[in-house]
Amino acid sequence: MNDFKISVRQICFMTIGLITASKLIFMTSITAEYAKEGILFSIAADMLVNAVFIFIALKLDEKFGGKTIFEILSERIGVPAAKIIYFIFFAIFFLKSYLPVIEHEEYIKKTLYETAPLYANVIPFFILSIYFSYKGLKGLARASDVLVWFTVVGSLCLIALTLPNVDITEFLPVLARPRLVLSGSLKTALWHFDSIYYLLLVGRIKREKKTELKIISAYLLSMVLTLLYAGATYGEYGVLTERQYFPPVEMGMISVALINVGRIDYFAAILISFSQIFSAALPLFFASLCLQKTFSFKNKIIAPIVVNLLSFILITATSDLIFVFYDLFTDYAVYPIAVVSFIFPIILAFFKGEKQIKGERLLYE
Amino acid sequence: MNKIKSKALFLAIIGLSATFFSNDFGVIDIEKTAIIVALGIDIDESEGYIVSTQIATPDPASEANVLNDQTTIEGKGKTIAQAVDNVGKNTGWYPLLTYCQLIILGEKVLDTDIMDILGVFVRTDKVPSSALVAICEGKAKEVLSATSPLDSVSSFAIEKILVKQIAKTDCVAMVNVKDFACGYYGISGFSYAPYIKTVDTDAKNTAGGESEKSQTTSLFDVTQTCYFDKGMSKGKLNPSQTLIFNILGKKTLEAYLTLENIEIFGQKADATFNIENFSSNKKVIADENGLTLDISLNATLALRDANKTGDLKSLSAIVDIPDAVLNAAELELKEIIQSIFIKTQEEKCDVFKIGETLFKFDYNNYEKFKDKIFNSKLNLTIKCNSVKK
Q1: Residues 110 to 169 of A: which have CB under 8 A from any B CB?
Q2: Calpha distance A132→B88 (Å, rounded)
Q3: Which pTM does this prediction carry?
Q4: CB contact (8 A) between residue B96 and residue A114
Q5: Is B23 in contact with A115 (Cβ distance < 8 A)?
């Protein structure tokens, strides 16, 4: 597992399939609540900032010649310090996992279930998540190959069903209230700290020609898909968007076609749900990876079990307080995640690269 | 062995996922479920809300004339949700609202804020936002219980009128829960709903196949429109005002205008014209004179019918319409639009969405002029052309 390198194609597919899927449930409504008609600018601003940091992460991969962040840190500041930093990474990924997991749980509970489900119904998600984390990068790569189609087909179908009802004047006045755009970006930043995933992929990328260009293009494509999706929802629901917490089952609802033939939009919603499961499990996957590195468990299933068990307890305990916890997360958790996502790679950029070290060694010898 | 283990694990995950998505653990037996296709809501001062639910039955066609009465079940409660729950409690059926596509509100709701009633349908995803909303003359329960020759289920008959009529002739101002709420919470606070009037007719009933008896059946006239400011009823648009209101708001596919006592084919006649290629442009001008609503319309008219005929050429599908008739059409359209404008300005209801247009297209002037919306002036430019020219 440790030697496995993920191909550029699979990273691109992960970006379009899983990263996009993480923005298709609550994000649109929460952004609309704060940014109003500036919703698209808010999302674009957040994602463009992340695109810059993804680029930095990819450059770090090139600079350090295929070494992972753990190897880079171990060689330069020692293994104990590297382990402490990886534990911080674990905590950050665990914090980051809360919203995707709880929004996925709420989405399934409120949309696919007519009556309140038994709590046991949440367990399959965590079992799948443990299995996903246990399979490591190879599993992530293979899942990405499949799920990209689910996300693309599902979201495009929903956008197509929505288009006849979209009123583009809902986006007017354009940028007349920039403070709302900024507020929307800040309040929903938690959904867009994507660059941190790519930091953990440093040293695990099977580099090829124009790696950076390909991956950044995939991220921009993910941004376009997200903007189209959020734009279709806002164009259709206007002022009501802020209470449309579950767009996959609400976007197509108004379509005249559906009134006549029934809820065929649920096929698209289920496709998105499949991608969403893996997307919600993604931060838990990386949290397990970091925990394994920190404690070097003999059996590699221990870390995924510990992470998912903690998450299960947290989700179970806070299930009825989702919006209280949402406020706590947007007010406080956003800062440590921002520090690790944005400041850590900049610090890392100042570390000596592999070529510099080799050069110095040669000079010394 | 490892392969067997991983296969077993994979199958277990698939099985658990199936239960996760399907709600197999909590599913309610279909036989214990009442599939509600329409809701009627009336207000009773002492009992609160009276919700009449029309329940889908396996074969409504077999006993068409009694079913509407029998399948409309009533529940009472202080809130809409409580009343719907009471339907379940009284019948032992779980009320499934996923297929509810029509919400009829009795006339008494016009005295209250409509959103107090419709709020529950926006809040819950159990009722689709695409459910149509209509106000009815008298009680909603009576409309749902009526027998219609259009469809054995009265709510389906009304849906046919609301949805199919709007798709073609623009006579009905169709609105669903989502659009009503969008209007309510929008900048202008304006929303509307069609007004259902029951028209009784006598029809022969051949149910049972042997005896033939006369029974009152109902047709529904939905050409009037109630309009609301922040959910409070402000008045009604008559059928011609409803038509113009509709075609001003969207691209029309087919609409008709009837002019009375006009000079055509060299004689006085009443004539109906097909409005084709209707285009309108609406803008709000804010200047030192206050707000002006500027509407320019362009319509191409084609003669559909007249109660007098001329020579053989007059029966052509494409008849040249004299300028005098075009002028009369322009005047008619102008009078209708002015009548809506004056009426709604007096009642302080922003039917033309002047506030919203100002906010979206001239945001810098919005704060300055937002209190002057009901002192606006109207500037109309109407041009009717003949289809042959």
Answers
A1: 110-118, 120-125, 127-128, 131, 169
A2: 43
A3: 0.88
A4: yes
A5: yes
Centroid of chain to Cα B66? 27
Rounded to an integer, what distance in angstroms lies between the CA atom of residue A33 and that of residue B356? 18
Chain A nearest-CA residue for B131: A254
Per-domain residue ranges of chain B: 26-237, 246-389
B155: confidence class by pLDDT, cuts 50, 70, 90 = confident
Q: Chain B closest CA to A233's CA: distance in Å?
A: 12
CATH number of B246-389: 3.30.300.210
Whether residue A1 has pLDDT greater than 50: no
| Chain A residues close to B23, C-beta within 8 Å | 112-115, 117, 121
CB contact under 8 A, B185 and A239: yes
Contact assignment for A116 to B185 by CB distance below 8 Å: no
Q: Which fold has domain A6-364?
A: Amino acid/polyamine transporter I (1.20.1740)
Instruction: Compute the nearest-CA separation of B177 from chain A (Å).
Output: 10
The beta strands (E) that lie in chain A are given as 6-7, 205-206
Interchain contact B367–A (C-beta under 8 A): no
List, for residues B1-56, the tens digit of each pLDDT value.
Answer: 677 877 787 777 777 666 666 655 555 565 667 788 889 999 988 888 999 988 87
Of B19, B21, B181, the CB nearest to A240: B181
Q: Does B241 touch chain A (CB under 8 A)?
A: no
In DSSP terms, which residues pair with B73 in a beta bridge?
B53
Nearest CA-CA partner of B230 in B177, B196, B258, B192: B192
Per-residue model confidence as pLDDT tens digits over A205-239: 999 999 999 999 999 999 999 999 999 999 999 99
Q: Which two tokens stand for residue A326?
A: 């949402």
A350–chain B nearest CA distance, Å: 44
| Residue from A13, A17, A31 nearest A247 by CA | A31
Using CA coordinates, name the residue in chain B closest to A247: B125
| Interatomic CA distance for residues A95 and A114, integer angstroms | 30
Q: Compute the distance between CA of residue A304 and CA of residue A297 in angstroms, rounded to an integer.
A: 11
Write A64-68 long-range contacts (CB < 8 A, 24+). Answer: A64/A202, A64/A203, A64/A351, A64/A353, A64/A354, A65/A353, A65/A354, A65/A355, A66/A5, A66/A203, A66/A205, A66/A207, A67/A202, A67/A203, A67/A354, A68/A202, A68/A203, A68/A204
d(CA A305, CA A311) in angstroms, rounded, equals 10
The beta-carbon neighbor of A117 closest among B23, B181, B186 is B23
DSSP H or E stretch at residue A330: none
Which of helix, strand or coil describes residue A6? strand
Q: Quote the tokens at residue A213.
A: 């260009």
